[in-house]
Amino acid sequence: MRNWTVGPPPSMRNVIIIGSGCAGNTAAVYAARANLKPVVAAGHEPGGQLSLTTLVENFPGFPQGINGPDLVENMKLQAQNFGAEYILGSVTAVDFSKRPFRVAIDGDWHETRTVIVASGASARWIGLPNEQKLIGHGVSSCATCDGFFYRGRPVMVIGGGDTAMEEANFLTRFATHVLLVHRRDQFRASKIMLDRIRNNPKIEMIVNTVVEDVHDPDKGVVTGVTLKNVVTGEKTLREVDGFFVAIGHIPNTKALAGHLELDADGYVVSHGGARTSVSGVFHAGDVQDRVYRQAITAAGAGCMAAIEAEKYLEAEGH
Ligand code: NAP
């Protein structure tokens, strides 16, 4: 018999959800609707990667598309309507060594029976002077999300790994011309992906080249990119409308290291379904997923994690 309908003691939570992107918010909707009264540690930049995008056209249910920030805000409101509590703060430390688990949000410790880790992965940015100013206005970290907007226009992709190859290839469906810029002449990308790029007539590969800056924040859109050849020192200005940064992601798991099994790159290791190496701690979204990384897959993963947390609590008699 579940007894959480009367609510847990204020100091003891049923579930703390770390992260308020698509995965965390969806987990919150499901957990709140199951009357678990979840607490969401929203982070200092709530909303995850969707809060950095503009129009999202591939989230089912919105025939005209929906703005990324609106989509995550709606999810949050939906979760709050069912009783989810949001705390604007980052998880600074955890203790999963014994039950109840303990989670510090901005230094304040909270006790909880279960945890859903949905802290996401942040796109790695180059750190150019104008880069952040133009995110959502031509600067993007996701070709699947934003490629469609560049139909009939030239774009640039930065990176030499599989993601950059995949994004460059994908973008040729829409763009007139794709400039693929890499800082070395050796690639991390797999041979098959590289061959695909080399055989694609729409892609121009530029190696041994770094980006000096992307323009033009004064116009509010991307108009071009200044490149510098690291061998000759020559600088060139290339006119493009889209600038896709594909130089990897960083999972947001700093506070979890040593408390949960992480792989060599810091992603949470799945132990089947939404389970992690610690019984009662579940994962959802990009913090574990380095393949799909979509809003809809993160939302699905959030749902799975909440259902697993609910079953776990039920089995324990809570
Ligand atoms: P990655 O393999 O780590 O490659 C990152 C690339 O970005 C490297 O070429 C790196 O250059 C470059 N880079 C890093 N920092 C940079 C900076 N500040 N300025 C300019 N360039 C910079 O990352 P990924 O491509 O995202 O792939 C991650 C993992 O997912 C890999 O294991 C990959 O195989 C896998 N993946 C697989 C598929 C697939 O099989 N379909 C698709 C996507 C990803 P350097 O080489 O000079 O360091």
Walk me through the structure.
By secondary structure, the protein is α/β, with parallel strands linked by helices. It folds into 2 domains: 13-122 and 249-315, FAD/NAD(P)-binding domain; 125-245, FAD/NAD(P)-binding domain (3-Layer(bba) Sandwich). Helix content is 22%, strand content 26%. It is built from 6 helices and 19 strands. The protein has helices at residues 22-33, 68-81, 143-146, 162-171, 191-198, 295-315; strands at residues 12-18, 39-41, 55-56, 66-67, 85-87, 91-95, 101-105, 108-117, 121-123, 139-140, 154-158, 177-181, 203-206, 209-215, 224-229, 235-238, 242-245, 249-251, 281-283. Strands 1, 2, 5, 6, 7, 8 and 19 form a 7-stranded mixed β-sheet that branches. Strands 10-17-11-12-13 form a 5-stranded parallel β-sheet, covered by helices on one side. Strands 14-15-16 form a 3-stranded antiparallel β-sheet, with no helix packed on it. A hairpin with an 8-residue loop joins strand 14 and strand 15 (224-229). Helix 4 (162-171) packs parallel to helix 5 (191-198). NADP nicotinamide-adenine-dinucleotide phosphate is lined by residues 126, 158-164, 166, 183-184, 188, 247-248, 290.
